[in-house]
Amino acid sequence: MGGGRLLNFNKAAHCRRFMLLALSLFTAAPIASAHEMDAFSTPAVRTGEAEPQFVDLGPMLDAWMYRVLETAVAKVNEPLRPLVEAGNDPARLAMLQRPDEVVKSVTAALPRSIELINSIERTVASKRLQARFPGQIVAFRAGGPGVYRSAFPWPDLRSITHNVLSSTMLVHGVYIGADKVGHFTDVGVGYYWTYKKALREGATEMGAIQLAVASGTDGMFSEGGLLGLAATGAYSNADLAANFAGMLFYVNLTEAIEVNGQRHKPLMVRDGPYWRLADHVRPGTPLLRPFVTDHWDEALNPNLLDRALRPAILRAVQARAEGILRRYADEDGEPRSYTYFARRQYELSSYFGIDYGHEGGPAELIGMAEAALAVEPGPAIVEMAPPPQEAAVVEVTKRADRVKSKPTRIASHRLR
Predict the structure, then answer these.
(1) How would DSSP label each residue in 218-257?
(2) What is the pLDDT of residues 201-213, one digit of tens each?
(3) H or E stretch including 174?
C-alpha cells in the first residue's frame, strides 16, 4: 500500500517513451481492451436535486452466471458418461473429473473479456432494458473522456484510451465499471491457473497467492505495463481487486472459501462420478454478491495516476464534488466527510488483510476524499494520512521484498 512495486516513475517515463513507438504496433489491442472508466462524473441534475436512483443489476448478472454454471456442468459431464459406462479407463476418468476441468468448462461457457464487456454495454444501453426501469438509471457513461478531458498533454497518445469510457453501474450495492466484470471472469482465471500451478510446484498458499497477484501487477502485459499505467496513465487498484475476486470465484467453484470471516460453500459438488450444482445454487441465488465489494469502486478505491495527470484530474474531481458526494451520501442524505472517505480508502488498500497489488499512499491517490476536501475545510491533501500506526507507506521495492516485510492475515481468507 503506497510506494510502488512498479511505480518507480523513472520507469514509468521510460514506458511512456516506449509507448510512443509501441502504440503504432499495439494501438488496436490497448484501445480495445482498456475500457477505462470515469467514476466521478454524474448525470446532470438541477441544483439541489438528488441523482436518480441506480437500478441494482446484481440479480441480472447473477441470473446470467447461473446460466453459465448450468452450461458448464453439462459440458464437464459430457465426456464422463461414455467413460463411466465403459468402465475400462479409470485413469482418464479421474483426470476428467478434476476440479480444473470444471474451471475449464466454466471459462469455455464465458465470452472473452472484450466481448463480454461490449455485450454488457449494449445491454445496459438498450431501450428495452431502460424501459423496464422508468425514472431510474440503468447505467451511466460520461460523455467523451470525462475527468480525463484535459489531463493528457499533447502528443501523449495514451489519451486515446479514454475517448470512450466504460459505463458505471450498480451491482449488489457497489458502483462499478462494466469493465470490472471482464477483469473478474477473464483475468481472474489467469490468476487461478498461476495460483494452482504454484501450489503444485510446492509453494505455500501465501506464496501462490502472491505469484498470482504478481501476474497482474508486474511485466509488460500487466496493470503496471501495457494493460494499465503505460498505456492509459492509470494503475487501477479496482481492476486488480476484480482480478483477485475472480481468482476466488474460480477456487470457489469446487472448494469452500472464507472471505472476511464468512464461509462460502462450493458452487459445484461431485455426485457419484459426475459434477452437479450445489444445493444452494439455484435461480435467484446471489452468486456474485460475495465477490463484488467496494474494492471494485474506482471512486472509493482510486487509481494511482501518472504524476503528470494528477493536477488536471484533481481539478476535474473537485469540480464534480457536489454531484459525486450526493451519490455517496449517508443514510440521512448528508455528504460524508473527508475522514470517512480517507479511512475507507485505507481499508480497501488490502483485500481483508491480503495484498492484492494495491499501490498509492494518501498523498498520491485522487478519490472521494479529495472530492470531500472541495466542500469542507481541511488541511492540504499532502498532509492527510490514515490513522496513526496504520499509515506506514512502503517505499519503492520489488514484490519479493514487500512480501517479506508486509504481514497478511491468511487465516481470514482461507482458500483451501
Answers:
(1) SSSSSTTTTTTHHHHSEE-HHHHHHHHHHHHHHHHTTS-E
(2) 999 999 999 999 9
(3) strand 174-177
